[in-house]
């Protein structure tokens, strides 16, 4: 169950956010220069990205918890390049786990934080650079942070403050172009914080493969009639809040869509249950389609994790796979969104 942060915790978070805003961290770090902090009570480090240095960028402090967070940050950073050339930006932004402190107009705050701000008064906050705190989580609508997230953000921003001070005073000779990250780690033996540059390579989400274990089923599927059909498949967030009392935050309904590339007709449209994985849904679709409709000639998706999962099994079944733009699905989703 969700546990809300006490007003004192919120005060400390606002205080930390307003204090670091005075330093203007975006003047010392670009969106490609990362800070890594090992907090005292966390098993894995957190990874921080600062926005605001580039033209048109909103001023943000993004906090990605743990190594899964590092994978999510890598996914965001690689958007539009390499295997992620065709990955939907909306999918990537909605499927990540991150905590964001975004600076902007006070009027842009989410409603729940407007009530907190009124209760706290917050004389240190600026009307045009008011901190707005947002929690992003896969399968959920962006929401106000809970107690644990508020505490993590406070500690992260306080430690980031010390990192920015070190950069300001030129105490750390960083080689950002060589993939160095600014690391800050608490040494339990000495009771002191250590700061140093370290090379930490980017880490992508793992690519999982699909297999059919039963040879007789594999042979049966190989012998299904082949059709001159190209199928486009992908996953989409619908951004229609759906209540989840147990989680204490609204769900973001997650949709799987498959369509015939030639006719533009939807083959299947399916909302995932909370416990279902993307791979299980794609696997069920493939087996069902092969048994009922026959073998398609090609499957196209913009999602590299889906294509990588399908590659081996599709090769064995004589089905071509393509990582590419799914224009038919894009048009279908526009029509669906207009009806919602």
Protein topology:
Blueprint: H1 7-23, E1 35-38, E2 46-51, E3 59-65, H2 66-77, H3 89-94, E4 98-104, H4 111-120, E5 130-136, H5 147-168, E6 180-187, E7 192-199, H6 215-222, E8 230-237, E9 254-260, E10 266-271, H7 278-293, E11 298-301, H8 304-317, E12 320-323, H9 327-339
Parallel strand pairs: 1-6, 8-11, 11-12
Antiparallel strand pairs: 1-2, 2-3, 3-4, 4-5, 6-7, 8-9, 9-10
Description of the molecule:
Helix 1 runs parallel beside helix 5. Strand 2 (about 45-50) and strand 3 form a beta hairpin. The chain is of the alpha+beta class and about 350 residues long. The protein has helices at about 5-25, 65-75, 90-95, 110-120, 145-170, 215-220, 280-295, 305-315, 325-340; strands at about 35-40, 45-50, 60-65, 100-105, 130-135, 180-185, 190-200, 230-235, 255-260, 265-270, 300, 320-325. The protein is built from nine helices and twelve strands. It starts with 6 loop residues before the first helix and ends with a helix. The chain has a seven-stranded mixed β-sheet with strand order 5-4-3-2-1-6-7. Strands 10-9-8-11-12 form a five-stranded mixed β-sheet, sandwiched between helices.
Which structural traits does this protein have?
35% helix; seven-stranded mixed beta sheet; 340 residues; five-stranded mixed beta sheet; 9 helices; Nucleotidyltransferase, domain 5; alpha+beta
Brief write-up:
This protein has helices spanning 7-23, 66-77, 89-94, 111-120, 147-168, 215-222, 278-293, 304-317, 327-339, and strands at 35-38, 46-51, 59-65, 98-104, 130-136, 180-187, 192-199, 230-237, 254-260, 266-271, 298-301, 320-323.
């Amino acid at each position: 169950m969700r546990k809300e942060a006490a007003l004192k915790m919120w005060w400390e978070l606002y205080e930390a956010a307003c204090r670091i805003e005075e330093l203007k961290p975006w003047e010392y770090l670009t969106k490609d220069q990362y800070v890594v902090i090992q907090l005292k009570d966390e098993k894995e480090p957190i990874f921080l990205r600062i926005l605001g240095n580039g033209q048109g960028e909103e001023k943000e402090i993004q906090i990605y918890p743990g190594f899964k967070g590092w994978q999510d940050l890598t996914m965001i950073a690689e958007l539009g390049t390499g295997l992620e050339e065709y990955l939907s930006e909306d999918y990537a932004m909605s499927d990540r786990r991150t905590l964001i402190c975004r600076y902007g107009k006070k009027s842009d705050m989410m409603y729940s934080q407007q009530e907190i701000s009124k209760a706290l008064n917050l004389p240190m906050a600026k009307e045009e650079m008011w901190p707005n705190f947002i929690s992003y989580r896969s399968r959920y609508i962006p929401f106000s942070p809970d107690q644990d997230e508020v505490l993590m953000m406070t500690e992260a921003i306080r430690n980031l403050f010390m990192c920015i001070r070190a950069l300001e005073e030129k105490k750390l000779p960083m080689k950002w172009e060589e993939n160095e990250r600014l690391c800050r780690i608490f040494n339990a033996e000495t009771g002191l914080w250590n700061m140093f540059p370290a090379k930490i390579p980017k880490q992508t989400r793992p690519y999982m493969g699909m297999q059919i274990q039963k040879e007789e089923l594999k042979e049966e599927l190989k012998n299904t009639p082949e059709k001159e059909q190209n199928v486009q498949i992908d996953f989409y967030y619908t951004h229609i809040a759906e209540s989840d009392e147990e989680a204490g935050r609204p769900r973001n309904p997650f949709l799987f869509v498959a369509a015939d590339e030639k006719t533009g007709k939807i083959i299947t449209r399916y909302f995932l249950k909370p416990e279902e994985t993307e791979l299980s849904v794609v696997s069920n679709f493939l087996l069902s389609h092969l048994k009922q409709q026959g073998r398609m000639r090609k499957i196209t998706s913009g999602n590299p994790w889906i294509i990588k999962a399908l590659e081996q099994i599709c090769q064995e079944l004589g089905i071509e796979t393509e990582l590419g733009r799914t224009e038919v699905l894009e048009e279908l989703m526009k029509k669906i969104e207009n009806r919602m």
